[in-house]
Amino acid sequence: MTKIIAPAFLLLFFAFPLEVAAQNTVTGAFEGTISDSQTGAALKGALVEITNQQTVVTISLRTDFRGRFYQGLLIPGIYRIRVSYLGYESREVTQRLKITYTGEVVPVPVALDPAPPAGAPTPAATPTPPLAAEETEIPAGINRFDGRRSGSFTDKEVTTLPLGGITISRSFDELALLLPGVAPPPQTLGSVAGPGVGAGVGSAGQFSVNGLRSRGNNFTVDGSDNNDEDIGVRRQGFVALIPQPIESVQEYQVITLLAPAQFGRNIGGQVNAVSKSGGAQTHGSVYGRFNSSQLNARNFFDTTFGNATSTVRANGQDVLLQTRDTNGVVLSQQPLTVRNESGGEDSFTFGQTGFVVGGPIKSDQVFYFASFETNITNATEENSFVVPTVEQRGAFRTGATGIFRDPLTGAATSAIPATRNGSGIFSLYPFPNNPAGVYGANTFTQVLPAGGRGVIFSGKIDDNFNLRQRPHSFTARYNFTNDWREIPVTGGAIFSTLRPRIRTQNLSLFLNSQVSGPHSRHSKFNQVRLSYGRTRLNFEEVRDNHFQISSFFLPNTPFLLNAPQFINATTPSQPGVPNTGPVIYVRSPFSVEQELSPLGQVNLGGFSPLGVDVFNFPQRRVNNTYQLADEFTWTLNSHRLTLGADTRRSELNSDLPRNARPLVTFNGSPRLILENGALRFPTANDINPIIRAEDLAAMGAASNFFQTLNTTSNDATISLRYYQLNFYAQDSWRPTTNLSVSSGLRYK
User: With b meaning 16 or more CB within 10 Å and e meaning fewer, what string describes 270-283?
Assistant: First the structure.
């Protein structure tokens, strides 16, 4: 008589995703419950083997008296989970572990069929194939049990989605713009996004989350601090916008709303990049990118009017440049010429090369991963500025005619168009050279350098070991970036090209430990995180050698304006009769600085400013951030309790002398007229009712003048030291299979 065994099978069903705060921004966890599908009884002692397919490191554990298992501190990646139990056929599933939801426990839908009894015929049946990662990834990535809004991108998505549309070099922070509630940052002056202070050199941030400030996000790499405390953006350079190459990132995560208690510092997005680790096999890749102006359409604002040299004319009159001796005798004379620098299309060549490599140092235990990337940009950029014409370089537009009538009374007179001081101011401005440009006859076009260099390096070592039958892992990661970039124009000013040099470093150490024993009823995990980050920034002057000369009084002091002085010596043929002959400029034996004293910046109303911003440059700083964090997780029946502390010490060493160089400003205004012992505003019938800014400049009458000059190093050095102390507790409680309650408290 054959004994009939009722068909039964073991269904491995997993609890819905739970938020486990102790599983941090670096690791995740798997959890499940095994029971007999026919009786519902929990099965104790089922063997669960979790194998990382990349490192081939296997963790074995058994279910507890409730038929449940839990394994935390798993790095993101693809795992093979194999479940076996005496009397049942083994089954396995391949699933990607993502840590989008910090410490999310991912469901693993695996069912075990009973093994046929010994000697019984085996029915012909098609074996159930193992579930692939693609089949489990979407269900496992759905979060239905807390209110956070977030998103993540796997290594495949990070490396294959098109990036670099906003900036020249690629940045994985562009991926955040694909998430709901994330918008680009406000546009800043110029086209440069960097960690500087001032117009044209500072970034508004990587992105804005839910309408909050784009500098209100918190950036981490493997959970370690990656913020620039001085600016409020990611620790970045001007070319290297991210701390490590995109090809070395395992997962990129952004929490945009309702982050749990272990996240803080900022109320905007919580952004984390998880770096790759080495595997059991040595693997690597080499990549490169190339772009050129020959492959792109010309910039709309890039004109192509050639490089013709032409003589300067004013009202149809020739403009001559004379050299005279001390007695006023003309020694030489030639027409004043300018060269149109519009040229053709701006040159641009960009090359990026890099490699990643990873593998074992000690089989199944110690692994390494390294990445290197270099960026080379050779480029020029056409820029146009507003400069005074020859006519405007004299009081009340008399630069070509000479002053032949009193500008206030109209009485006949005869005088040169500008004072010596006024000629000094105008000598700092180049003459217009591109009459077809965007500002018409006032257009001065210049092709400026816009190149850059950048190097990015990262290295990581992972050591997996057992101590007292408890699995542990130690990780060390180092990031390094070093770059410089030429910023053609700062604040829309002429002669304001800068070259910032910036270097960033980050060292992070992690110790992940399973505190509970192999037979403990309640799992306990701990992670200690220690990191150090550093940013060093310095702005160098890129001096114009065609129009500018070195400072006469302070030749080693950067950012000072100086040029040969040309004095407009044009005079009317007689009082009341304008000059109709050539306009005469005389080369002065003195420079502008010798005439006016050192100048750092000139603001002339209606025209482009001259020189680098005196309120923000020179500028340099060194920032250090030290971080020590500890996080403890305790699984207690249906509770997941997390306790943590995150402490940071910040050192901000900055040298930014405000108004470090003389600043002269000319602004126009209505002319006040004295009549019958009282002042009144002009009417349309009055002569020259408005005194323009260039009129005041011609007379050497500045509206404002800040006569300051910092020649002492470290005169404005500020050294700030402060601590950030953060403590938090998070509890995730699932009283029933369809109800999850998360509560947390954070103090900072």
Answer: bbbbbbbbbbbeee
Of the chain, the end-to-end C-alpha distance in Å amounts to: 74
Asked if 91 and 109 touch (Cβ cutoff 8 Å), the reply is no
CA distances from 299 to 344, 381, 443, 600, 603 (A): 11, 10, 18, 32, 29
Q: 575 near 412, Cβ under 8 Å?
A: yes
Angle, alpha carbons 433-436-438 (nearest 5°): 95
Segments making up each domain of the chain, as ranges: 10-117+130-145, 149-291+350-379+451-540+620-655+722-730, 306-339+388-428+549-619+658-706
pTM over 0.70: yes
Name, in order, each residue with C-beta under 8 angstroms of 665's C-beta and a sequence gap of 6 or more.
602, 603, 702, 703, 704, 705
Whether omega before 618 lies within 30 degrees of 0, making that bond cis, reads yes
pLDDT digits (tens, 9 = 90+) for 217-256: 999 999 999 999 988 899 999 999 999 999 999 999 999 9
Task: Say if CB 663 and CB 600 are below 8 A apart.
Answer: yes
**What is the spatial distance between Cα 746 and Cα 263, in angstroms, rounded to a whole number?**
9
240 neighbors 483 (Cβ within 8 angstroms): yes
* Spatial CA neighbour of 214 closest among 168, 177, 173, 183: 183
Task: Please state, as a whole number, how many other Cβ atoms lie within 10 Å of the Cβ of residue 184.
Answer: 15
Q: Considering Cα of 242, then 245, then 248, then 253, what sign does the dihedral take?
A: positive
Given the structure tokens 């002057």, which residue do they identify? 541
Class level of CATH domain 10-117+130-145: mainly beta
Residue 360 has pLDDT above 90, yes or no: yes
Task: Report d(CA 244, CA 480) in Å as an integer.
Answer: 8
Among the residue ranges 233-242, 578-587, 697-706, 733-742, the one predicted with the least confidence is 733-742
Task: Please state, in angstroms and rounded to a whole number, the distance separating the CA atoms of residues 61 and 558.
Answer: 67
Q: Would you give the DSSP letter of residue 156? A: H
Please identify which residue in the block is written with the tokens 């009549």: 675
Q: Using alpha carbons only, how large is the chain's radius of gyration in Å? A: 36
**Which structure tokens are listed for 558?**
């950067």
Closest CA to 102 of 158, 172, 50, 27: 27
**Phi–psi pair at 441, nearest 5 degrees:** -65, -15
The owner of tokens 């701006």 is 346
**At residue 261, what is the residue type?**
A
**Residues contacting residue 300 through CB under 8 Å, at least 6 positions apart:** none
CA distances, 477 to each of 283, 611, 741 (Å): 19, 43, 35
Q: What is the pLDDT of residue 406?
A: 92
The model's pLDDT over 544-573, given as tens digits with 9 standing for 90+, comes to: 999 999 999 999 889 999 999 999 999 998
CB atoms within 10 A of CB 653: 16
Q: Are 82 and 95 in contact (CB under 8 A)?
A: no
Strands 669-670, 663-666: pairing kind: unpaired
- Please write down the long-range contacts of 53-56, taking CB distance under 8 Å and 24 or more positions apart: 53/77, 53/78, 53/79, 53/80, 53/94, 54/78, 54/277, 54/279, 54/280, 55/277, 55/278, 55/279, 55/280, 55/364, 55/367, 55/462, 55/464, 56/279, 56/280, 56/364
Q: Which of 198, 217, 199 is nearest to 207 (CA)?
A: 217
Strands 583-591 and 317-324, bridge-based pairing: parallel
10 Å Cβ neighbour count for 684? 5
Residue 384's closest CA among 442, 336, 345, 338?
A: 442
Beta strands at 673-675 and 704-706: parallel, antiparallel or unpaired = unpaired
Write the DSSP string, 386-414.
Answer: E---TGGGSTTS-TTT-EEE-TTT--EEE
